[in-house]
Amino acid sequence: MKTYRHLVFDIDGTIIDSANINMLSLQETIRELRGEVMPLEELYFSFGIPGIRTMEILGIPEPQKALKLWIQNYTAFAERLGMPLFPGMRETLEKLQSQGVSLGIITSKIREEYDDCFGKRQLLEFFPCVVTASDTPKGKPNPDPMLEYLKRTGASPEEVLYFGDTAYDMDCARLAGVDHALVLWGCMNPEGIEATYRLERVEDILQFASKKQPDAEA
Hints:
alpha/beta; six-stranded parallel β-sheet
């Protein structure tokens, strides 16, 4: 099994079990803006793409203002219903960190969302390099976010593995020349999605971690 120095993660549907909150908060946002209740299945397209793009696809006027309302509703639903990490995720991240693996995030969340979401879950310390939708002109599925990660860290594409739950995640990595793992614990429609690896369990992440090399003796 190939191992990697950099393990990089999407957030929603990969680290956090957020599908229900995402859909309910988007549905509520559309209801407030349009006065209509869209079926949840019609909103699945929004997984993995920037929120501003979701609003554009829906034809919402002033998409930036609509996105802020979605963030407010997302936070309210999350506080009311809870939004847990996938089972075993924190323990897996702790093990990876203790092994000296470089951990990163590439997300379609804007920086404000990321800081709020991960700050409340005490996850910020795990990820020294974070690329959000605020950091590149083009988001996933374009390769720009991954290329930005490579630029910031100095990593070469063959040293990086990206974990995500959508075709947008896989395309972002593939177009940047980076291997990509589709996480089936959060993927809603895995059929037809191309990936270097397909993972059934959170613990499967550990097999890809390069072991920390001992310091050379003086």
